[in-house]
Amino acid sequence: MGRVKAETMTDTAELRLEAVRGRIEKAAREVGRDPASVRLIVVSKTFGEVDIKPVIAAGQRLFGENRVQEAQAKWPALKNAHPDLELHLIGPLQTNKVRDAVALFDVLHTLDRPKLAHALKAEMAARGKTLRLLVQVNTGEEEQKAGVAPADLPDFLKLVQDELKMEIEGLMCIPPVDEEPAVHFAFLSKLAREHGLPELSMGMSGDFEAAVELGATYVRVGSAIFGSRG
After folding, report:
1. CA 169 – CA 186 distance, rounded (Å)
2. Contact between residue 164 and residue 118 where contact means Cβ atoms under 8 Å apart
3. Cβ-contact 187, 203 below 8 angstroms
């Protein structure tokens, strides 16, 4: 019984992954974009190796986690087994976790304050490893949410790029839950163009097609592939 159930869950994860890929391709083609310009990050937070391995077997190589400590429990072994995996930190990063984050992750989507930028600069220099970096923008200017305020973005980019000499690849946002996400995606796309940043990390399970239509180069999808989280 357990084996049958496990195989059914595996098939479901694979089928959902393929369905999401198809929806990304369709959304891209509808606005004249090359589907290959959109990369899917499968968000594996709260799911373990038994859930992740079938998705890896189906060819997925980009994964996202929200917490450093949770990622440390499952990803070192998976990355050792699959050296071409790319791990993205898409949740807030505390400065006391910078050392662990630099050691494990390949891309950080949530750079948002000078203290974190300085800590990352020092740790990357000490380790001889460079994380690819995106700046999180608080497009809804929500007090409880991480991210650089839009008005502060030019000064923050100047600090990171000009003073600290760190390369920024793009911008990331999480729209307010009670507002139309497309408005925020369009705004983030505009900010990225203004600052000459090529990467846009935006769109999740409920809205990634709109994000693709508005220029997303990374979409972060979890529940549409793994199912609802317990």
Report:
1. 18
2. yes
3. no
